[in-house]
Design goal:
With 587 residues, the chain is of the alpha+beta class. Helix content is 17%, strand content 20%. Among the domains are: 101-160, no CATH class; 421-514, Leishmanolysin, domain 4 (Roll), CATH 2.30.34.10.
């Protein structure tokens, strides 16, 4: 029982106010080094699921054992998720990152007829190390470099010898936990990311995710996946480097896509690539050729490009600038289509999650016409209470900086989850409205009341539901039998005044209708990733071999989680594998 409690608590995630992403502020600070074509290109192998190695930075602030366990569990689950989505041509040799010639070299030979054209002619005596954002890259991860003192002689002087590289890795993620200036300045910021190295085709090979130390307990799998997607290529700085490999898989046969973003007739900036256009047309059930992937307008300069989807049009996507509450965002078909169009990945699109927002609403969905005139049930007016569009949470009709004045039902921050039994306070209003909380409960618009002559105000209320088919379900309120609730219609309940309104195409759309607390992960996962690395400047993670040690650790972890007020989630597997790679301890 104790072990089970420990597992449940360690799998729990806090669900709080949404994270605000600052990727487009951070990435321009990073000098990205692109490998020269023909250099440092490992021999390609077969296309297989991408191997992501995670390296915990030695500059990270020291964490307690419990905090380290929390970080590694969250990151491991995010890595497993992403690895299950993308495949690449796996290299048969260890990954070595390029050095920045502009750092180690004082000048390049510029005589185009010389044998050393564009080679380094003199070393920079102040050259010390390479950085990836705020992380010092270990020398063992870096290729060597040399200088050619004479313009017409191929004799060189080795400045740095190549390291051993990182074996069995296709992308290297540096994880950095710190209280940075950016973390201090922005209280809603949980984490941020950047990429710093790419291969000759432009595919990112290395990047950083910085986790704000003081908000460590609020970082979810959803947060890490969002930032990792940025580092892997969902970036305005990389849009122009995406390649078209529709004819041949070999990168040498791929052609640059060139400029893939421009504004449509209304001024909405969009991403125009084939898979993205097709995915949005399928989602909206429209064939308008102007339907490129809509990019956020509010976090970009006029006429500029964002690295996020437009919030008005794609609520619920993991790639919004301010994703929704944990468990209410999905790895949607449009995001996976964008990665497919990078030309760098083979994407497992079958693992895309359902995007409810705007589905089947037509080409005009999200425009000012549908935003303000009540023609779409996804938007609202006023400031009343209702239900978040996934009906997991109660919500309030609000707008924000990303919605351009449109209003939607945003999840309430406190005790809004209908699927949490502990939220059931059984106040007079709840009993009179027939509310029932629990894993099978969802939010319904309702004006039910047991009171006579009461003003019947429609609001969001929690009732039990159970699926009987696709978009078909029954509802049970306090003291009632199970009753069919026709999608798009309403029902009356014996013993109550008023009605329960039955949402259409919002519930029972997937085979798994479990709330976030009952799912193994926020996102679907693949096989466990074995390549998680540890910087030797910190104490290595060591699995406990003795059952007594395991039990003691679980007790301490459970107590720590309870003190922090975490809500436990049901989890079928929390096995985390973090190893120090052989040969890496003397980097």
């Amino acid at each position: 029982m104790l072990t089970r409690l420990c597992v449940l608590l360690l799998c729990a995630e806090l669900r709080v106010s949404p994270h605000r992403c600052v990727f487009d502020e951070v990435q321009p600070r990073v000098r990205v080094v692109r490998a020269a074509r023909g250099s440092l290109v490992p021999k390609p192998g077969e296309v297989a699921p991408m191997r992501i190695g995670t390296w915990l930075s030695g500059e990270s602030e020291r964490l307690s054992q419990h905090e380290e366990g929390q970080v590694r569990a969250t990151v491991e689950r995010a890595v497993r998720t992403v690895s299950s989505l993308f495949s690449v041509e796996q290299a048969s040799s260890p990954l070595l990152l390029s050095r920045d010639v502009n750092k180690y070299c004082k000048f390049l030979w510029k005589n185009s007829s010389g044998v050393n054209y564009n080679r380094c002619g003199q070393a920079n005596k102040n050259y010390r190390y390479e950085m990836c954002l705020d992380v010092k890259i270990p020398d063992n991860h870096l290729a060597g470099c040399e200088v050619y003192p004479q313009s017409n002689s191929t004799r060189s002087v080795v400045l740095r010898h190549p390291g051993g590289g990182v074996a069995d890795v296709d992308f290297l993620l540096y994880l950095h936990v710190q209280t940075s200036d950016k973390c201090r300045a922005q209280p809603r910021l949980l984490a941020y990311a950047a990429h710093c190295r790419t291969d000759a085709s432009g595919r990112p090979l290395a990047g950083v995710v910085v986790i704000c130390r003081e908000r460590l307990t609020r970082v979810s799998v959803q947060t890490v996946v969002h930032e990792l997607f940025h580092a892997l290529g969902f970036s305005r700085d990389l849009f122009a480097t995406w390649v078209d490999c529709s004819v041949e898989r070999e990168i040498s046969a791929c052609s640059p896509r060139g400029k893939v973003t421009h504004a449509d007739g209304t001024g909405q900036m969009r991403l125009y690539t084939p898979s993205v256009i097709s995915a949005l047309q399928r989602h909206l059930a429209a064939v308008d050729p102007e339907l490129g992937g809509p990019l956020e307008n509010s976090d970009a300069a006029p006429g500029g490009v964002s690295s996020h989807w437009e919030a008005r049009l794609l609520q619920g996507s993991v790639m919004l600038a301010a994703p929704g509450p944990s468990g209410a965002s999905s790895i949607d078909p449009l995001t996976l289509a964008a990665f497919q169009d990078t030309g760098w990945y083979a994407v497992n699109t079958s693992r895309a999650q359902n995007l409810v927002w705007g589905k089947g609403e037509g080409a005009l969905f999200g425009s000012n016409l549908t935003c303000y005139d009540n023609s779409s049930s996804f938007f609202c007016t006023g400031s009343g209470l209702g239900c978040h569009h996934l009906h997991l949470h109660k919500g309030q009709c609000l707008t924000d900086a990303h919605l351009d004045g449109c209003r939607i039902y945003k999840a309430l921050e406190n005790r809004s989850e209908c699927w949490k039994k502990e939220n059931e306070r059984q106040s007079g209003d709840e009993r009179q409205g027939g509310e029932v909380y629990g894993s099978g409960s969802r939010c319904f618009f309702s004006n039910l009341t047991t009171l006579n002559h009461s003003q019947l105000i429609v609001t969001g209320r929690c009732y039990r539901h159970r699926c009987t088919g696709l978009n078909r379900y029954q509802v049970q309120v306090l003291g009632s039998d199970w009753l069919d609730c026709p999608a798009g219609g309403s029902i009356q309940i014996r013993g109550y005044h008023g009605s329960v309104f039955c949402p259409d195409k919002r519930l029972c759309l997937d085979s798994d209708d479990s709330p976030p607390s009952e799912a193994e992960d926020v996102f679907p996962t693949g096989q466990p990733n074995e390549t998680l690395l540890q910087d030797d400047t910190r104490s290595a993670y060591k699995p406990a071999a003795d059952p007594l040690i395991t039990t003691v650790f679980c007790v301490l972890a459970a107590l720590g989680v309870l003190v922090l007020g975490l809500t436990s989630t049901r989890c079928t597997s929390c096995k985390v594998r973090i190893h120090a790679a052989s040969g890496m301890l003397n980097c």
